[in-house]
Design a protein that fits this description.
20% strand, 5 domains, Neutral Protease, domain 2, 8-stranded mixed β-sheet, 5-stranded mixed β-sheet, alpha+beta, Immunoglobulin-like, binds (3S)-3,7-diaminoheptanoic acid, globular, single chain, binds zinc ion, 884 residues
Length: 884
């Protein structure tokens, strides 16, 4: 297909004001009658035909203002319907189509998931239900009548409020009519029909409106929906309190389905969720599952204003709703849990996914300028970097300035399909700010590199920071402009306290946030009596790759004393990373890794000692300590090395650092393990979860020594656990560190949870992650296991997705067998579900940085995919860009 370009945008020629849908559900032949109230768009091309999108549709009939349209009046294919010479006035177009939900393996449009009818329309799935101008700037009011066999689908749900329902006399069928008063783009359309259990709760909004909340799940699973309901109510309250956003319908429904291409979908008043992000019980869900459920329930709910009430003009503006809504859900979780720990977790995710994306062939701006397949742009860059950009706006404008901009955005654009420019203009207008340079964050891809060198001038009693920013070339962007980068700063005195920041006259230092705008720039502070240690980019205020002239002693100091928890954590990580890079056999001169290699074991010992100090510090949050103790990931190390990467060397280096930590810190780890033993029934709250996180981190570090007593401890932990967090953590410790105990433990786990697919996903994922040559064969065998299915995205992601994305040594086996296995899986999946296939293929995104043997085999695997017959647009786009 031809690429779509942002600069080619033009308004639609025809608008749709109302959509009346009549859907008669049938597993193989669902009949859809759509009555579209249309009119020519005054901003469109005069006299234009009506051109509607379709995808694999079977057309039955077309009528114009009630009169059947003869074949000469229109041109139809499965992918488009053109009304050739429509009268240029308001009209009603009636279209009848027939579809086969049970044959819909792409899980886009209307499909059946374990016997439940459901829909997924974003981005371009509505065109698989009826012919329609399938673009987000066509907003209409929808009324949906759904009819089904009462036996087969006693529950019938649509967008908005239910206005009518009943039996169809003399038949076994029944119906429901749903009306959504809020104009919306068709990607927010949804319907559900099935046998479902539900839980409900009332909610009263800030202005006293009563809302009925419902969560629908597979029969028998209602008891596991309670946490999601609790998270929903907290989200609704929080959005009122923090953003002034109130809910706007009489009902809000969530449906959990077992077969879903992504996490969840924010359809107006009817969110549809992957059941993985709804269902939780202490026995089946880990602390991480609970945190994800809370975040995703919030995220989809927050879309009601950022995405639904104000939507996107076109798909290039995707970050307008996604980046902003991720920012909002991050803030929600920060308020509900520990803000520093949430920030650390978010930055880890940003670095591992987004920085990796930005450094490879799939790099693209937060707002792309062109795409071939929009489904491939639901990326870490659009979501996570998009959220960072909003966060920087807040840092630059301050709490109140940010809120003023948001208020103006809601006021000015409610009911509209907006653009990134319009969003930024609200912040500029509300604050009298010039955001033109800031806007480059949306247009330039790649992670900016920022080098900061600090100098203390004893004679002048001043401290100077020389800042240099570099923008590296990325695909399609050889040259770039300098960006506006907010660097939060502290100067830490010898006593560990922050010095007052007194900007020297004549510099543009602005308090505690340095606003960097030029390629090179200096900031000077006066009245600095003694040499401080600068703490730069506090809270990760800008998503940049930072290098400094801090010596390892400075980083050790920050790791013990920085009052900014993020940078306290980050100082330890920077040192650990430098050590791991040099231990992986690469220590270029003049880097911190080089210095560490030269410094020998003394520095590693000092690092371990600093981490040990945090471990013993009872004033610190256990969840924070657990983060401090976690060694940078293999992906982080690979990215730091940058080229000629050898995953085996990285794995070995990381393993030996963890073993060293386990050995050196054993007494402290044992104490932490004892101190945080469970003291009552499981509760998913953040404090309890933090204690488990630290206890489990201690368990794992000790077990990584391989000592018999430590393995025995892990085995006992596994056997006595009363919740999934502890049970699964112990199982993973055994799987990774205790080959002799592994199979029996895995089998015990399987037998216990064999009827619970979401738990079995954990079992599949864990086995796919074992860093041993036998794993590939194990994964191959598991693809034939009755618990596995190529048709279910969760199963595929658990087994094959984890093998490709979370097992660097085995995916990148030097013999190329891992690459080949994933390539063949991509080809097989592509015939069934292109979106899931394309997502899996993303695991090759860093292939160019591998050493030559592995690079060669990755390239062969990619070429094999590229040569595959009848590739989907999804896979051919990713493979072409990966090789490009
Ligand atoms: N908006 C959906 C994602 C749709 C993905 C389509 N391929 C979920 C979310 O971000 O909230
Ligand atoms: Zn979203």
């Amino acid at each position: 297909p031809q690429p779509v370009r942002l600069t080619d945008y033009r308004p639609p020629d025809w608008l749709v004001d109302t959509v009346d849908l009549d859907v008669r559900l049938h597993p193989q032949a669902t009949r859809v009658v759509a009555r579209l109230g249309m009119r020519p768009n005054p901003l469109g091309r005069p006299g234009a035909p009506i051109v509607l999108d379709g995808d694999e549709l079977e057309l039955k009939s077309v009528a114009l203002d009630g009169a059947p349209l003869a074949g000469a009046g229109y041109a139809a294919t499965p992918s488009s319907l053109t009304i050739l010479a429509p009268p240029q006035e308001p009209l009603v177009l009636t279209i009848e189509t027939v579809l086969d939900p049970s044959a819909n393996t792409k899980l886009m449009g209307l499909y059946c998931s374990s016997g439940t009818y459901c829909t997924q329309c974003e981005a371009e799935g509505f065109r698989r239900i009826t012919y329609f101008p399938d673009r987000p700037d066509v907003l209409a009011v929808y009324t949906t009548r759904i009819e089904a066999e009462r036996e087969e689908a006693p529950v019938l749900l649509g967008n908005g409020n239910k206005v009518e329902s009943g039996d169809i006399e003399g038949t076994t069928r029944h119906f429901a009519v749903w009306h959504d008063p809020w104009p919306k783009p068709c990607y927010l359309f949804a319907l559900v029909g099935g046998k479902l259990d539900r839980i409900t709760e009332p909610f009263v909004t800030a202005t006293g409106k009563e809302v009925e909340l419902g969560i629908y799940v597979e029969p028998g699973k209602a008891a596991r929906a309670g946490y999601a309901m609790d998270a929903l109510k907290r989200s609704m309250r929080w959005d009122e309190e923090v953003f002034g956003c109130e809910y706007d319908l009489d009902v809000f429904n969530i449906v959990a389905v077992a077969d879903f291409n992504m996490g969840a979908m924010e359809n107006k008043g009817l969110n549809v969720f992957n059941d993985k992000y709804v269902l939780a019980s202490p026995e089946t869900a880990t602390d991480a599952d609970y945190a994800n459920i809370e975040a995703i329930i919030a995220h989809e709910y927050f879309h009601n204003w950022t995405g639904n009430r104000i939507t996107c003009r076109d798909w290039f503006q995707l970050c307008l709703k996604e980046g902003l809504t991720v920012f909002r859900d991050q803030e929600f979780s920060s308020d509900q849990r520990s803000r520093p720990v949430k920030r650390i977790a978010d930055v880890r995710l940003l670095k591992s996914h987004q920085f990796a994306e930005d450094a490879g062939p799939l790099a693209h701006p937060v707002r792309p300028a062109t795409y071939r397949e929009i489904n491939n742009f639901y990326t870490a860059t659009v979501y996570e970097k998009g959220a960072e950009v909003v966060r920087m706006l807040k840092t630059l404008l301050g709490e109140e300035g940010f809120r003023a901009g948001m208020d103006l955005y809601f006021d000015r654009h409610d009911g509209q399909a907006a653009t990134v420019e319009e969003f930024l203009t609200c912040f500029a207008d509300a604050n009298g700010a010039d955001l033109s340079q800031f806007a480059l964050w949306y247009a330039q891809s790649g992670t900016p590199q920022v080098e900061v060198n600090g100098h203390w001038d004893a004679a002048a009693r001043s401290y100077r920071l020389d800042v240099r920013q570099t923008q590296v070339p990325t695909p399609g962007q050889p040259d770039k402009q300098p960006m506006l980068i907010p660097l939060a700063l502290g100067l830490v005195g010898a006593d560990g306290r922050d010095l007052p920041l007194v900007p020297d006259d004549g510099t543009n230092a602005a308090g505690s946030v340095l606003v960097v705008s030029r390629p090179e720039q200096s900031f000077v502070f006066r009245d600095v009596e003694a040499r401080p240690v600068p703490s730069i980019n506090r809270g990760f205020s800008a998503p940049v790759k930072l290098t400094t002239n801090l010596a390892s002693e400075d980083l050790l100091f920050l790791a013990r004393h920085d009052t900014d928890p993020f940078n306290r954590f980050e100082a330890g990580q920077t040192l650990a990373l430098a050590h791991l890079v040099s231990a992986s056999g690469l220590a270029p001169e003049k880097t911190l890794a080089g210095a560490l290699a030269a410094g020998g074991t003394a520095l590693v010992e000092a690092l371990i000692e600093a981490l040990g100090a945090s471990l013993e510090d009872e004033t610190l949050d256990p969840a924070f300590i657990a983060q401090v103790l976690s060694v940078p990931s293999e992906g982080d190390i690979a990215r730091e090395i940058g080229s000629e990467v050898d995953p085996d060397a990285i794995h070995a280096a990381r393993r030996s650092l963890r073993r060293a930590l386990g050995e050196a810190l054993r007494p402290g780890l044992e104490r932490a393990y004892g101190r945080h033993a469970p003291d009552g029934a499981y509760s998913p709250d953040a404090v309890s979860a933090g204690r488990r996180a630290l206890r489990n981190a201690a368990l794992e570090l000790m077990a990584s020594t391989g000592e018999a007593a430590d393995i025995a401890r892990a085995l006992a932990h596994f056997e006595t656990a009363d919740n999934m967090t502890d049970r699964f953590f112990a199982l993973s410790v055994l799987a990774h560190h205790a080959p002799a105990e592994r199979d029996a433990a895995l089998d015990a786990f399987y037998q216990r949870f064999r009827d619970d697919p979401l738990v079995i996903d954990k079992w599949l994922a864990l086995q796919a992650q074992i860093a041993e040559p036998e794993t590939l064969e194990r994964v191959r065998e598991l693809t034939r296991h009755p618990a596995f299915s190529m048709g279910n995205p969760n199963r595929v992601r658990a087994l094959i997705g984890n093998f490709a994305a979370a097992n660097q040594t085995q995916f990148h086996r030097p013999d190329g067998a891992g690459h080949l296995f994933v390539a063949d899986a991509v080809l097989e999946l592509d015939r069934r579900n292109p979106q899931v296939a394309a997502r899996l293929l993303g695991a090759f995104k860093s292939w160019r940085s591998l050493e030559p043997t592995r690079r060669g085999s990755a390239e062969r695997a990619l070429r094999r995919i590229a040569d595959g017959p009848g590739l989907s647009p999804d896979v051919s786009d990713i493979v072409a860009r990966s090789l490009g």
